[in-house]
Amino acid sequence: SQQGEEDPQALSIQEGENATMNCSYKTSINNLQWYRQNSGRGLVHLILIRSNEREKHSGRLRVTLDTSKKSSSLLITASRAADTASYFCATDEGGGFKTIFGAGTRLFVKA
Amino acid sequence: EADIYQTPRYLVIGTGKKITLECSQTMGHDKMYWYQQDPGMELHLIHYSYGVNSTEKGDLSSESTVSRIRTEHFPLTLESARPSHTSQYLCASSAPAGYGYTFGSGTRLTVV
Questions:
Q1: pLDDT value of residue B111
Q2: Higher pLDDT among residues B40 and B56, named by residue
Q3: Which positions ≥6 away from A66 have C-beta within 8 Å?
Q4: CA dist., res. B74 & res. B24, Å (int)
Q5: pLDDT attached to residue B22
Q6: B19-25 β-sheet, strand order
Q7: C-alpha distances in angstroms, B45 versus A46, A64, A77, A84, B83?
Q8: Percent of chain B beyond pLDDT 70?
């Protein structure tokens, strides 16, 4: 079962621009996570936001969470070519023992 | 350095062969997971473990099996590989709830 669904599926921007990706989910959560995956590699954990948090920052990353709309967004500011990757949101099912990943947003940053 | 290791990185094998994909982590995490991911697609949970001697099947039906005899080791075995098993297999581990997963680099399996 797919919990998180990312939007858009693919995004192409110029270096220096901001990139915004959205994630929607269906059931209540304890936390929501964002991951990055470079082509053919494993996922790298970027940031975790808990259900009682509304916004979180880490470097050029800004994550928001709206539990009333069951949605989250990931903003990457001043994007770089090295940010080219797939970005996945992931949510825990009620008990928190399993994390469900969405299909990802493919970001391409042109130099 | 704490990390999670998967071997082999790439594997091409003939139909009917038995294979074991290795996964080891040095972080002392109790929870470990195996995901299957086709290129550019979502991850599907195939097995997970809460600790030693604990294993569960995930959401995606899989013909593979796993074992957890030691905390740091979580191998995945295919008794008889088939072309439909061609995919990338990702191993991950996690600390107690509220923290993110640490992933290995993956094993890209091709069954010919």
A1: 97
A2: B56
A3: A54, A72
A4: 6
A5: 98
A6: B4-7, B19-25, B76-78, B64-66
A7: 20, 26, 32, 25, 19
A8: 96
How confident is the model over A40-49, as a mean pLDDT? 92
Place of tokens 């195996």: B34
Interface contact B105-A42, CB threshold 8 A: yes
pLDDT of residue B95: 84
β-sheet bridge partners, residue A64: A55, A73
Instruction: For residues B109 and B86, give the distance between their C-alpha atoms in angstroms, rounded to a whole number.
Output: 5
Distance from CA of A16 to the nearest CA of B (A): 25
Q: Say which of A97, A101, A106 has its CB closest to residue B43.
A: A101
Picking from A40, A41, A103, the nearest residue to B41 by CB comes out as A103
Q: What is the distance in angstroms between the Cα of A48 and the nearest Cα belonging to chain B?
A: 7
Nearest CA in chain B to A41: B105
Tokens, residue B2: 């704490």
Contact residues on chain B for A35, CB-CB shorter than 8 A:
100-101, 103
pLDDT of residue B99: 78
Q: Which residues of B touch A (CB under 8 A)?
A: 6, 31, 33, 35, 40-43, 45, 48, 50, 58-59, 88, 90, 92, 94, 97-106, 108
Residue A47 CB neighbours (<10 A)? 17
Q: What residues of chain B lie within 8 A of the CB of A106, using their CB? A: 40
Q: Return the structure tokens found at A19.
A: 């990139």
